[in-house]
Design goal:
This protein has two helices and 15 strands. By secondary structure, the chain is mainly beta.
Amino acid sequence: MTNQTPGEPAKARSGGWGETIRVIVEALLIAVVIRTLLFQPFSIPSGSLIPTLLIGDYLFVSKFSYGFSRHSFPFSAAPFSGRIWAAEPTRGDIAVFKLPKDNETDYIKRVIGLPGDRVQVLDGRLRINGQPVQKVADGFVEDRDAFGRVTRVPRFRETLPNGVSYHVIEREGDRGYFDNTVEYVVPADHYFMMGDNRDNSTDSRDLQSVGFVPFENFVGKAQIIFFSMDEGTPAWQVWRWPTDLRWNRIFQKVR
């Protein structure tokens, strides 16, 4: 029995190591649930989606947007195949998926072709089901060439058949390796993915490296940039934030 003055609040008692371990386990479980079912952070290590996403962008991906597959779970450890509570990707979404070649590597690209679509690039112009996609010149942006030198490259606004509009860049004009392709027919339950940096993106046009992406391999939809640092600046170097943080990109919605 404790001696306590009337009206005096009871003091919290320490639970020792057992209580500390319980709190840590609970916090870890909450983090796993959020990461698995709600949102997962990703960083952008390459320039394949310039000008939409830049190297050094950090973004949240919504795990629930397309339902859940085994790839929604850490290490793809869920004991089932297919998807539950599935919702099909929309043309123009920017999505994270597991590379079909190994089912382990995370890739991020834009959804261009839906199941059954015919997709082709001719003279740098994207065609879907035989119809050229609208593409209008829209200024220039800075990018790096094959030697790492900063250069100005043409920017275009592309508008898909469903009205989704975004910018793409053509570092090599209409002379890029994948600016003239065969016609790809997207299989059932698969998607055709492309980067916005058309001449510097390994995507579904390369059947050996990426190819068509099964719906099961989708991890989630890119939603918002929550942090962004200049290329080459590690996020942990907080003393460089005042000069290297891209303030204008923070909380920018991914489109």
